[in-house]
Design brief:
Layout: H1 2-7, H2 14-21, E1 30-35, H3 42-52, E2 55-59, E3 66-67, E4 81-82, E5 85-86, E6 89-90, E7 95-96, H4 103-119, E8 123-127, H5 131-139, H6 150-157, H7 161-169, H8 183-199, E9 211-218, H9 221-238, H10 240-249, H11 254-260, H12 262-271, H13 277-304, E10 309-313, H14 318-334
Parallel strand pairs: 1-8, 1-9, 2-6, 2-8, 3-7, 9-10
Antiparallel strand pairs: 4-5
Helix pairs in contact: 2-14, 3-14, 4-5, 6-8, 7-8, 9-13, 10-12, 11-12, 12-13
Length: 336
C-alpha cells in the first residue's frame, strides 16, 4: 500500500488509482484519449489525471508543435504543473514556426513518444482537439507521406476558393474539410486526397499496440463562448499581437502565418494593416466560435464512424471531472 501512496501523489483520487493498479491488467495497453473543443480545459484535466495515474501527456494539437507560437496556440505551460511538479508532455515545440507538419508526421512522432513512455513504465495519455490527429491514432491508419505535386498546385491556383472547396467535399478522406481557412491549406488537402485515391488503400488500418479509450469533454454553447471570449482577452493582455510581430521579424512569412489560421491569420492581417482593430476582434472571435463548433462536428462524426466517446461534463468542478475520467478508465479496464 505504501508504494501506491507514494505513486498516487494527487491524494483526492487515491481510491480510484488503487482500484486500477491493484489489478493484474497492464494499464499501458489502454490508451486514454481526452478530446474536446477549444476552451474546454481538457489540457488541465489531462494533467491532473496524468498526475494521479503516473502518466505522461502526448499532445494532439496541430499548431502546438511549433516553437515560438505559444500565446496564439494556447500553450498554457502552467496547466502541466500539479502540486509544484511538472507533468511530462510530448509533441509540443518540436518544429520551427514556418515548417510544414502533417498527420503522417504526427503519427510517426506519436508512435515514438508512445513507445518511450511505455518503456518508462508510465501511462501514455493523448490529449488534443485536432480531430484528424486523434482519429488517426484511434484507428491507426496506414498513411503514407504525400509528396508535393507542383503541376497540380499550379492547376489549383487557377480555380476559385469555392471551386476547390466543392472539389474537396467530394473526397471521402480522413482529412478535415471543415477547418480550411486559406487557399494554400485547401490545395494541400486536395493534394493529399488525390494521392490517397490513386494509392488505392484509403482508410487501411494496422493492428495497434494499444486499446484506445476516448473520453470527451462537453460544454454548452453559451459556456464555450464565454470561455473563448475570456481567453481571447487574456491572450491579448499576454502579448499575442507582439508574438506575431516577433515571428514576422524572425523570418516567418505572412503567407505562412495566414496558413496557420485563427489567431495567427487575423493577428497577421491586423499587424500588416489589412484589417482594423475592430475587425480583428470581431472576425477572430467569430472564427474561433465557428472552429469550436466544427471540432464538435468532427467528434460527432467520429461517433458515426463507429468510435465510442465517453462524454463528461466540462462544467462540473474540476475534481469531479478528474474523478469521472479515472472512473471511466477503471470501468474500461475491469470490463475487459
Amino acid at each position: 500500500m505504501s508504494d501506491i501512496v507514494a505513486k498516487c501523489k494527487f491524494y483526492p483520487y487515491f481510491c480510484a488509482y488503487t482500484c486500477i493498479h491493484s489489478t493484474n491488467v497492464d494499464l499501458q495497453h489502454t490508451l486514454p484519449i481526452l478530446i474536446g473543443p477549444t476552451a474546454s480545459q481538457k489540457t488541465r484535466l489531462a494533467a491532473l489525471v496524468a498526475h494521479a495515474l503516473d502518466g505522461e501527456i502526448i499532445s494532439a494539437d496541430s499548431r502546438q508543435v511549433y516553437r515560438g507560437m505559444t500565446i496564439g496556440t494556447g500553450k498554457d505551460y502552467d496547466d502541466y504543473m500539479v502540486n509544484g511538479e511538472p507533468i511530462p508532455y510530448h509533441l509540443i515545440d518540436i518544429r520551427n514556426a514556418g515548417e510544414a507538419y502533417n498527420v503522417f508526421e504526427f503519427q510517426e512522432d506519436f508512435a515514438q513518444a508512445y513507445r518511450k513512455i511505455c518503456a518508462r513504465g508510465k501511462l501514455p495519455l493523448l490529449c488534443g482537439g485536432t480531430g484528424m490527429y486523434v482519429e488517426a491514432v484511434v484507428k491507426n491508419y496506414a498513411l503514407h507521406k504525400v509528396p508535393e505535386d507542383a503541376a497540380f498546385r499550379t492547376e489549383c491556383e487557377t480555380k476559385s476558393f469555392e471551386e476547390l472547396v466543392a472539389e474537396l467535399q467530394t473526397c471521402k478522406t480522413l482529412h478535415n474539410t471543415t477547418d480550411i481557412d486559406s487557399k494554400k491549406r485547401l490545395i494541400r488537402a486536395l493534394e493529399i486526397a488525390r494521392h490517397e485515391e490513386s494509392a488505392g488503400d484509403l482508410h487501411r488500418t494496422l493492428q495497434a499496440p494499444y486499446t484506445p479509450l476516448v473520453i470527451g469533454v462537453e460544454i454548452s454553447r453559451e459556456e464555450r463562448r464565454r470561455r473563448i471570449e475570456e481567453r481571447f482577452k487574456k491572450r491579448l493582455h499576454e502579448g499575442m499581437i507582439r508574438e506575431v510581430e516577433t515571428l514576422l521579424a524572425h523570418g516567418v512569412s505572412e503567407e505562412q502565418l495566414l496558413y496557420y489560421g485563427l489567431e495567427y491569420k487575423y493577428t497577421t492581417l491586423l499587424v500588416t494593416g489589412k484589417i482594423t482593430q475592430q475587425q480583428f476582434e470581431t472576425e477572430l472571435l467569430t472564427a474561433i466560435f465557428q472552429f469550436a463548433k466544427r471540432q464538435m462536428t468532427w467528434f460527432r462524426g467520429m461517433e458515426r464512424r463507429g468510435i465510442t466517446i465517453h462524454w463528461i461534463s466540462g462544467e462540473a468542478p474540476m475534481h469531479e471531472r478528474v474523478q469521472a475520467v479515472i472512473g471511466i478508465i477503471n470501468s474500461h479496464i475491469h470490463g475487459k
